[in-house]
Amino acid sequence: EKEEAPATPRLEVIKIVTCKGVKNREPFGISSVFPLGTYRVYCWMKVKCDKPPTVLRHIYYFEGRKICEVPLAIKYPTMRTWSYKTVAYQKKAGKWRVDVCTEDGYVIGSIQFEVQ
Fold first, then answer.
1. Which of 30, 66, 83, 112 is deepest in the core (most CB within 10 A)?
2. Tens digits of per-residue pLDDT, 28-83?
3. CA distances (Å), 87 to each of 2, 5, 21, 59, in order?
């Protein structure tokens, strides 16, 4: 017998980008490579949720190691939201990844960027 998946809200990442900042809820300076002098890198996304509210997490990885988790409240059926990571230090140069995770741990989106 196959076990049924729990009835969790259907969530979909419509768009995800890394950028230098967010203005009027829109990303600017979209890139996947950021110079070492960059102070913060933002991870911006647009999501759809059939049963808000729920929580998504941005999980930041640096060189394959988990650095932090940022919970994001999803309050509307379609929503733009973002988080950022301060990368303004020499030891932050390298490859980064941000996974978008549901409350029950499923990765529904991912994006990579590099600080060099």
1. 83
2. 999 999 998 899 999 999 999 999 999 999 999 999 999 999 999 999 999 999 99
3. 44, 38, 13, 15
Q: How far apart are CA 75 and CA 29, in angstroms?
A: 26
Distance CA 21, CA 34 (A): 12
Single out the residue of 113, 108, 102, 112 nearest to residue 13, CA to CA.
108
Structure tokens at 59: 């999980």
The Cα 11–Cα 48 span in angstroms is 6
**Two tokens, residue 43:** 């991870």
Beta bridge partners of 16: 45
User: What's the pTM?
Assistant: 0.90
**What residues are paired with 109 via a beta bridge?**
100
Q: What is the DSSP letter of 91?
A: G
Residue type, 93: A
* Phi-psi region at 24: left, alpha or beta (left = phi > 0; alpha = psi -120 to 50): left
Six token digits for residue 13 = 């990442």
